[in-house]
Amino acid sequence: MTLKFSATGLSHGHRALAEHAEKAVKRALAKAGLERANAVLLFLTPEYAANPEPALRAAARAGGCLQVVGCTGAGILTEEEWVLDSPGAAAMVFGGNMHLKISPQGKLSDDDIVLSLCTPAGLTADWLDVPTRRIGAVSGDLFGHGPFKVWSGARVADSEQVDAIMSGMDGVINASQGVRALTSPIEVAEVQDYDIKRLGNYPALSVLVQSLPPSVRDMERVPLHLIMGGVTFGDPDTAIREGRYRLNHIVAANLRDQSITLSQRPSRGERLFWAMRDTLAAERDMRNCISRTAQALGGQPDLALLFPCMGRGPNFFGNRDRDLDALRSNFPRLPIAGMYGNGELGPLDGLNHLYQYSVVLGLFRANNA
Asked: How is the chain split into domains, by residue range?
């Protein structure tokens, strides 16, 4: 057997048994040709959130290490399959020079790539807003009620935050936000608090309605759950194609003054485009995201981490995860691990960003440092 320094394993069934974590780790070790792991990345389904400790201990015993990092998620995935409807565990093992190192609070280097996991309560601005490149997600379940758990060192983290430095690896992180642009970027000309009054020379709601497909072009019945604004960074002519934008979700469309209320306060002078969630656009954008990430890595990856929103994946694409399909198609034998979360963490415009309805992808290659 060819020795590999990373591999995955998955196990699931009818009950939330610690055995699933043990089996997932053992299967990963066998695929990698390793007797023990330097570290284990372990994702568990929501059924484990009330009491994950038995599964964590089982994973630590199976991996022969105490460094077990991970969280519960709405679902789990590896390159083999995704699981959303039964209790289970997904594990990735690290060997050779690859480690997941827990750094003391505030001791992260700007050059580090950090696997970052948190609960909704653990997501704070001062934690997220550091120069270190983060990749990860917010632990969640299908209903958003909890409980939610994250862990490191095979123990649940009381801080509800986990940072693990991805040591011995070079990596590139990108996100696919997967929306279909309805307009080109337009200057925000007038705002009041959270309301956009005018885009360019026209009322904001009028611009939006005129951009909608004819089947939903009704000012009194705008499908707000499918539509959002995208604020671009850098050159607006290429920002959408290159994914350089952050989404700003619509709270209300105001018929009286033709304004639109957004979830984040808009700024006058920003360039904003209206966009709609769309499966075909999401597939195309994911393929572009994979291509950009692989090109930036500059070589064959040894592993991938994939964090789709629970609002994407099979729930969005019709009982298939086309994000995972696209990644497997590009790299058929690549170890892939991830979970479906309640917000995705990754870089955007030089800062760390909380994405929604998106997928964050990291491709990694072992180094000899």
From this structure: 6-176+283-366, 179-277
